[in-house]
Amino acid sequence: MKVTMLDTGFDAAHPALQGKVVRSKSSVPGASALTDGHGHGTHVAATVAGTGAGSGGTRKSVAPGAELMIGKVLADEGFGGMPWIIDGMERAATNGARIVSLILGGRAQRRYGPGQPRGQPAYR
């Protein structure tokens, strides 16, 4: 089964990911998907499909038989643009991913809706 991970890339030297990544591409301008300066993408990829090689096989992933397609859609600092994320999602669909994992977060922005008093913020 192919699983696409859209995150901060991955550490190509990580022992648990050796032979697991069948395709990788970065949507982040000037960055390689083979690097993960943040670490989150590597962590999530190893949780999903890692071999457990770094722990002598005692800490395998939830789907050790899965093949990974890694899309770097977030910069090493953890932020990303919507076009980068959409590019990664479209590439995942085009390349036959059955599962796409996006673990994205952000700050809530305070907004006031029409007719809403300024003292009652709505978070979107």
Q: In brief, what are we looking at here?
A:
With 124 residues, the chain is an alpha/beta fold.
What do these coordinates show?
By secondary structure, this protein is an alpha/beta fold. The chain is built from 2 helices and 6 strands. It has helices at 40-49, 82-94, and strands spanning 2-7, 21-26, 67-72, 99-102, 110-111, 122-123. It has a 4-stranded parallel sheet, with helices on both faces. Strands 5-6 form a two-stranded antiparallel sheet. The model is unreliable at 120-124 (pLDDT under 50).
Task: Give the helix/strand layout.
Elements: E1 2-7, E2 21-26, H1 40-49, E3 67-72, H2 82-94, E4 99-102, E5 110-111, E6 122-123
Parallel strand pairs: 1-3, 1-4, 2-3
Antiparallel strand pairs: 5-6
Helix proportion of residues, in percent? 10-25%
How would you spell out the order of helices and strands? EEHEHEEE
Contiguous helical run count: 2
Structural class: alpha/beta
The largest sheet is: 4 strands, parallel
Q: Oligomeric state of the chains?
A: single chain
Unreliable runs, pLDDT <50, ≥5 residues?
120-124
The fraction of residues in strands falls at 15-25%
What's the rounded overall pLDDT mean?
87
Shape verdict: globular
How far apart, in Å, are the first and last alpha carbons?
A: 35 Å
Give the strand order of the largest sheet, numbering strands 1, 2, ... along the chain: 2-3-1-4
Cα-based radius of gyration, to the nearest Å: 17 Å
Task: Tell me how many strands there are.
Answer: 6
